[in-house]
Amino acid sequence: MSKTIENKYQELDEISHVLLRSGMFVGSTKQEIKTMFLYDSDSETMELRDAEYTPAMLKIVDEVISNSCDEFRRKDNLGLTDIWVTLNDNGWITIKDNGGIPVVKHKEIGIYIPEFIFGRLRTSSNYDDTEDRNVIGTNGYGVKLANIFSKEFIIQTADKKHSYIRSWKNNMRILSDDLKIEKTDKHYTQTKFLLDFDRFDGQTGFSLDFVNIIEKRCIDAAAANLGLAVHFKYEDGEDSRKSDWKFKKFDQYVDLYSKFIDIEEGIKFIDEQKSVWVYPSGNINIGFVNGAECSKGTHFKAVRAEVNTAISEYLLKKEKIEVTNKGIDNKYSMFMVIDVSNPAYSSQTKEELTTSPELFSREHGYINCPDKFLRDITKSEIINIVLDWYKQKTAAEDQAEIRKLNKQAGKKLMRSDKFINCTSRKRDEKELWIFEGDSAKAGFRMSRNPITQAAYIMRGVPLNSYGMKPVQVMKNQVFSDIINIMGLKWGENNQATSLNFNKIVISSDADADGHHIAGLLMLFCNHFPELFDQGIVCRSISPIIIAENGKDSRSYFTLKEYKKDEKNLKGFKIKYIKGLGTLENRYYKSMMENPHFQVFSRDEMADATFRHWCAKGIADERRDGLKNEV
């Protein structure tokens, strides 16, 4: 059956609207499980554990407690020093303070101020946005929500002149005819209400988790309002439980979290706007805005942004690494107490502050963290924690990249035209010769053993690969091709039996340029140090001088060799070999058939030597080393 226009479009009175759309005002009316800090009386510390509760019930009680906290923070209160919070297993909740509300009639509305505050929606003393208000209340709902979600609601107050008593029933719909006003010299405000459990799914009373949460809220209220005494009591038939809280310093509250932070490692500062404590590790955010718990929002974002930036700039300067704020943000814990003028929140539940930092104070805006505080942060254990994380992160990323590179290895050469393969299937007799320049290519083809000798022809000087990560090395055409030809695997202990060739033969000219090329190829091979341990990397030594006299020819591989035999070379024609490309075919063939190999191995100085000659940014060190050699 289709709806009528009247059924489709409805108008609700204010109370019905709050009850129907309760999530807008008090949060969910369904039970949920949340991990939170709760006080453990046995250890006298906070414990992090799961608690099952109804957010709306918590918010309602919290609104009444916040009302008393707001009064404590007002300079013109009647001497409020204490708050008493009592839960009874029969469903009644009593919250009392020794402040007081004016027992006078509102001249424009014609009703007493207590009724105006507790029994009418959208009434408040916090509507003047031209004033700086460092209190919790903002929208004029607050304590009225407790009235709306209660079967009975009783307010008693006194202002040193008169006392006032009045009650409501049936979710604030019925204002009882029980108004009582008397003269008195006392001052207090007591709010007593019987929750309407039918409004909360599956609730018939107070669970132990809920009781613990309310006690934690009492502790928070005392901590965020130094000097305020908050007394908690739970009455359960013959059994009762109570605790009393008052803090001289916020540090005493932080001490309750000693299981999760190292108290001795704290770094803090206090300015006229906020107090901030930072502790290495833990990843805890505990914050209070105008005396109420609010551990999420722009206040934390603003301070953490400063801390994170200080750390990232320090690491870039001192460690030469780039770490994003996101990578730093969960490496430390922060506690904060802050006053925000006329705060704005993401919802009536006030769990997240949305006020822009520049509006935190009319006079100061946002006050930046002191330089000393930020310097102390960069000297703290937080730096080591971030560095450890960064090393683990990069190692994991490197391993993932290595797996990817190894998976792709051998599939395709970047320059297959530079590779001259051999035909043997016996890896232990195969050699991979590496040359520089096409001039050596023709001589190799004519002189090699095509069964056992393969070659890769580079063009130009290879890259200095010192300090490169595998992915950087693999982006280089020469290195990528050599790795794929050899069948090398990153991050593995490559054994000769698993490689495609038994030797890597560096064949470069025996001059300064050739030595330079050989050194850079050795540096590349040092990415796989096990190759040196197995004698796989070597250099073919070509003659630098050849003496000929008819069929008699003599090859000299060093100038020292030649000088030693020079007196025996009368009548010989002396040829100085400029490079492999100038070798005659017969000498080239001799070099290939009877090679002179210089096999390289590593010792404990290998890495230090490579660093000394190849690392960037240490030119002065190299210069001093050369001076010492001279």
How is this fold's topology laid out?
Layout: H1 5-8, H2 14-20, E1 32-40, E2 45-53, H3 55-73, E3 82-88, E4 92-97, H4 113-118, H5 143-148, E5 150-159, E6 162-169, E7 174-175, E8 180-183, E9 187-195, H6 208-224, E10 229-236, E11 239-245, H7 250-254, E12 267-270, E13 274-280, E14 285-289, E15 292-293, H8 298-318, H9 325-329, E16 332-338, H10 371-378, H11 381-408, E17 419-420, E18 431-436, H12 439-447, E19 453-458, H13 470-474, H14 477-486, E20 503-507, H15 512-525, H16 530-533, E21 537-540, E22 545-549, E23 552-556, H17 559-565, E24 573-576, H18 585-593, E25 597-599, H19 606-614, H20 619-629
Parallel strand pairs: 3-10, 14-16, 18-19, 18-20, 20-21
Antiparallel strand pairs: 1-2, 3-4, 4-9, 5-6, 5-9, 6-7, 6-8, 10-11, 12-13, 13-16, 14-15, 17-19, 21-25, 22-23, 22-24
Explain the overall architecture:
The chain has 630 residues and is of the alpha+beta class. 32% of the residues lie in helices and 23% in strands. It is built from 20 helices and 25 strands. The strands form five sheets. Strands 3, 4, 5, 6, 7, 8, 9, 10 and 11 form a nine-stranded mixed beta sheet that branches. A hairpin with a 2-residue loop joins strand 5 and strand 6 (162-169). It is elongated, with a radius of gyration of 41 Å. It starts with a helix and ends with a helix. 36% of the residues are buried. Mean pLDDT is 89; it is low at 133-139.
